[in-house]
Amino acid sequence: MTRFDFHIVRRFLGGYTVLIGALIIFFVVLHYVEYIDDFMDRGASLRQVFLTYYPSYVPEIVRLTSPLAIFLACIYLTGRLAQSLQLAALQTSGVSLYRLMMPYLVVGIMITGVMFWFNGWVVPRTNQIVLDFEQQYLRDGPRQLDISDIHRQDSPRSVIIVGYYDKGRDIGHRATLQVFADRQQLSSRIDADRIEWKADINKWRIRNGVRRTFDEDGSESRSSFASLDTTLNVFPRDFARTERDVESMSIPVAADYVDALKRSGADNLGRTLVNFYSKFSYPFANFILVLLGVPLASVRRRGGQAIQIGLGLLFAFTYLAVMKVIEPFGYSGMLSPVVSAWFPHMLFAVFAVVVLWRTRK
Q1: pLDDT, mean of residues 316-323
Q2: Phi and psi based region of residue 113 (left: phi greater than 0; alpha: psi -120 to 50; beta: remaining)
Q3: What does 190-240 look like in DSSP terms, one character per residue?
Q4: How far is CA 44 from CA 37, 56, 128, 137, 180, in A?
Q5: What predicted TM-score, i.e. pTM, was given to this entire model?
Q6: What is the mean pLDDT of residues 278-294?
Q7: How far apart are alpha carbons 256 and 155 in whole angstroms?
Q8: What is the rounded CA–CA span in Å between residue 139 and residue 132?
Q9: Would you give the distance in Å from CA 1 to the centre of its chain?
Q10: Domain ranges of the chain
Q11: N or C: the chain end with fewer CB closer than 10 Å?
């Protein structure tokens, strides 16, 4: 890379960092103003809000705003070079637009990789703190309890299903525990009238159950019991499922969780699957918007940078709007969750390639 390339990388990363910082401040101030009454009414102290909640909320803000920040930084820097005729001078001397894009693409690939790691491993841990805080202190927090048809993964090869969960009494009705020998083969299954949490011994008590064991040759053995105490990796709090479970899981944990839900025959998994596949697709928005931003801003326009930044904001918000419009189709099952998660990114990737192809090189 040349000196000019390093100059572009330094200015690009500097602009991106400044914009991320500004967006964090903007979101935190806006969110605090909106929810200050809830914080005060529910008894949250300033220390809890600003030293626990918002520091944990920052990674989610970075994840969400990174594509916008990288796009605006790209538009601003490239627009400045175009308006000052530096790009025109370089192109006149024989440097192609493709070559000029190299430092941008290096930064885009680097940030996409960092955001993939950030989205898959860092954000889930901090999101759990955010979700717990919001459940306690925000009136319209995201916790929508699943008290019926609950599926929980007890271990990588076992799943527990509860038809109805009484949160007040810690009793699950119509309980099923499935154990798999491998990813497809069911080795044993317990069906019981109910499952009760016994706090004094920290165990679950299964009432009126039937245990069925399946051999590899297809034979089945069956036994009944009135009461059975057992230790599970699932606790009463785990049955209070929300639609945002996957958001607080790293990619490997979420993959096991989704696989267990599929094997157990759980339905209404649209939102869960879209959120899971978005862990992979969303970071690519950073690279796609760099691919779009450089050719878009490399053309000198009459209105100057104001027009370029305005166009940039229009395209960025259109991108985000398409994602939000498509997601509900994946939630409802009208579209495959994979398609719902990836389609907006593929659409804008094609659009970026077309814009680049039509731009004067």
Answers
A1: 93
A2: alpha
A3: EEEEEEEEETTTTEEEEEEEEEEEE-TTS-EEEEEEEEEEE--S--GGGGS
A4: 10, 15, 18, 7, 44
A5: 0.79
A6: 96
A7: 9
A8: 13
A9: 34
A10: 3-140+275-358, 148-241
A11: N
Q: Taking Cα atoms as reference points, which of 131, 139, 106, 142 lies closest to residue 56?
A: 131
Least confidently predicted of 57-61, 113-117, 259-263 = 259-263
Q: H or E element: which one contains 161? A: strand 158-166
Q: How many CA atoms lie within 13 A of 148 on its CB side?
A: 1
Rounded Cα distance between 23 and 34, Å, is 16
200-221 average pLDDT score: 92
Confidence grade of residue 71 (pLDDT, cut at 50, 70, 90): very high
Residue (of 227, 156, 238, 155) closest to 190 by Cα position: 227
Q: What is the number of residues in the chain?
A: 361
Say how far apart CA 175 and CA 190 lie, in whole Å.
Answer: 8
Using the structure block, give the residue that is written with the tokens 């814009």.
355
Residue 50 one-letter amino acid: F
**When comparing pLDDT for 151 and 295, which is higher?**
295
Rg (CA), the chain: 26
Please give the pLDDT value at position 145: 53
Dist CA 54 CA 81 (whole Å): 37
**If you average pLDDT over residues 231-249, what whole number do you get?**
76
* Rounded-to-integer distance, Cα 214 and Cα 223, Å: 12
Residue whose entry in the numeric block shows the structure tokens 């398409």: 322
Rounded alpha-carbon distances, angstroms, from residue 105 to 109, 110, 163, 184, 246: 6, 8, 51, 42, 31
How many distinct helices (H) and strands (E) make up the chain? Answer: 12, 6
Lookup: tokens for 304: 């100057």
Q: Answer whether 208's CB lies under 8 Å from 185's CB.
A: no
Q: What DSSP state is assigned to residue 299?
A: S
Question: Residues near 167 by Cβ (< 8 Å), separated by ≥ 6?
Answer: 145, 147, 236, 239, 240
- Under a CB-based contact definition with an 8 Å cutoff, are residues 183 and 256 in contact? no
Looking at residue 12, what is its pLDDT? 97
Q: Identify the three-state secondary structure at position 179.
A: strand
pLDDT value at position 215? 87
Return the structure tokens found at 216: 């590899």
Task: Tell me: pLDDT of 88 over 80.
Answer: no
Cβ atoms within 10 Å, residue 127? 20
